[in-house]
Amino acid sequence: MKNFKGFLTAGHLKWLALIFMIIDHTAVVLIEMGIFRHQSDYSYEFLSQMVSVYEIMRNIGRLAFPIYLYLLLEGYHHTKNLKRYFMRLGFLAVISEIPFDLAFADQVFYWNHQNVFIELLIALMLFVSLDYFKDRWLMRLVSVGLCFGLAYLTMADYALFGLLAALIFYFAYGKRLREALAVLPAFAFEYFMPTVFLSSLFILFYNGKRGRVQQAFHYWAYPGHILLLYLIKLMLFKSN
């Protein structure tokens, strides 16, 4: 592996993760919360086909979060302005919550499940605290506990499992093969979605270069595509 050179940049990984995420959210919003909730409008054969399509799309969608979590860790290690990084994630977390609640709960405010930017924001807090208390193991344990508690209280997407994955990624960081293999224990909780482990290949093929990144587009694509899916659901399934 010493001479192995990847061919994927951070820009490539962002696009892949975005595509996987849109596929996943489309399956949930339009199939699970649309077609499956209006089963009486469709034939048995069509519904059977949709079950298979749904499972395939959800499996593909599982590739997104490991890549996003890895890119968060990469961004943390390379950012020139940590405060701005926090503010950007926090702003997107707030902006995304109403579209997220509308699309996934049909409510303007739904407190039992928060968008993924909340999870990523807490994961970033975890990375910072682990570095800040690098030589104080007791404070490290306390800060980790507080981050896990925050993920639990906010009911963030992936919740405690996402923070555990972030913790594993943090300690695996520094060697590309180790980073790629870290996906296996980090996402063992998704054993029923086997495609998630393919994300380790994308991390392995990452060459450490930034590439072309449309930063603003990728941030706004999250609330934007969720809102769009919600509007499509409203148009396709007008009757409740």
Describe the overall structure.
This protein has 240 residues and is mainly alpha-helical. The chain is 71% helix and 0% strand. The protein has 11 helices and no strands. It has helices at residues 10-35, 44-61, 64-78, 82-105, 116-132, 137-154, 159-172, 176-181, 183-186, 199-204, 215-236. The radius of gyration is 19 Å and the shape is globular.
Quote the beta fraction. Answer: under 5%
Tell me the quaternary state.
single chain
Determine Rg (CA atoms, Å): 19 Å
Quote the distance from N terminus to C terminus: 55 Å
Could you list the spans in which at least 5 consecutive residues all have pLDDT below 50?
none
Comma- or semicolon-separated keywords:
240 residues; mainly alpha
Summarize the structure.
The chain is mostly helical and 240 residues long. It has 11 helices and no strands.
Record the SSE blueprint.
Layout: H1 10-35, H2 44-61, H3 64-78, H4 82-105, H5 116-132, H6 137-154, H7 159-172, H8 176-181, H9 183-186, H10 199-204, H11 215-236
Helix pairs in contact: 1-2, 1-3, 1-11, 3-5, 3-7, 4-5, 4-11, 5-6, 5-7, 6-7
